[in-house]
Amino acid sequence: MVSKKLKSPVCPDRYYHIYNRGNNKEKLFYHSGDYHFFLEKYKQYVTPYADTYAFCLLPNHFHFLIKTGEKTNASISAVSNQLRRLFISYTKRINNIHNRSGSLFTKNYQRIEIDSDRYLTQVIRYIHKNPVKHNIQNDYENYHYSSYRIIVSDHETELKRNEVIDWFINKKEFIDYHRNDQVDPTTFNLLSIEDENSPDG
Question: In this structure, which long-range contacts are made by residues 73-77, counting pairs with CB atoms below 8 Å and at least 24 apart in sequence?
Fold first, then answer.
C-alpha cells in the first residue's frame, strides 16, 4: 500500500518522496554553482534530520527520497522546518544574484509517504530518469545533478547507498532496473498523480 496524499504530514521514521518547483515555474538553478550551493545547504539543514536515498535537481524543480529520523524530544515537524530554512537560504542567494525579490519556491512543497518496498524502487528510478522525462538530457546515467552516478560509484557519500543497492539486490540489478522502462501497474497511478502536480520541464 502506498499513501496517495500529496501533502501528507511529515512524521518520524517514514519514507517520503518530496519535490517542489520554482514559483510560477521560474528557474531555480541557473548554473553549476547554484546546484552545488543548494546541495551544500541541503546537507547543512536537512541531512542531520533525515536520511537521503535519491535525488535529482532540474532547472526548475527537484526531487528527493528521504526517510525521517526516529521520534525524539525534537518536534515531529523538524524536517519541514529544516526544509523551510533551506528554501529561505537558497532564495536569498538567487534574489541577491538576480536582483529579484519575493518567494522563489511554490508555497507548499509536495510529499508522498511511501510504505511499499515496490514503490521505493519505482520512485528511485523515476527520480533518476527525470532529466530524460523533461527533455533536459538524454543520458540520465551521466547527469551531474542526480544521485545515480553516486550510487553506482564507490566514492564516499552520505547517501544511504548500501540500502539502495540492497533494495535492488545488487548494483547490476540497480543498473538494469533503470534501463527497463516498464512501470509496475500497481504504482503507475501514483506516479501519474505526481505528474499532475509536477513542473512541465
Answer: 74/49, 76/10, 76/11, 76/12, 77/10
CATH among 3.30.70.1290, 3.30.450.370, 1.10.3720.10, 3.90.79.10 for 15-194: 3.30.70.1290
In eight-state DSSP terms, residue 114 is E
End-to-end CA distance of the chain: give it in Å, rounded. 29
Helix orientation angle between 117-128 and 171-179, rounded to the nearest 10 degrees: 70
What does the alpha-carbon distance between residue 14 and residue 10 come to, in Å, rounded to a whole number?
Answer: 8
> d(Cα 193, Cα 70) in Å, to the nearest integer?
28
Under a CB-based contact definition with an 8 Å cutoff, are residues 6 and 193 in contact?
A: yes
- Stretch (H or E) spanning 6: none
The residues near 194 (Cβ < 8 Å, ≥ 6 apart) are 6, 17, 19, 110, 112
Question: How do residues 119-155 score in pLDDT, each as one tens digit?
Answer: 899 999 999 999 999 999 999 999 999 999 999 999 9
Domain ranges of the chain: 15-194
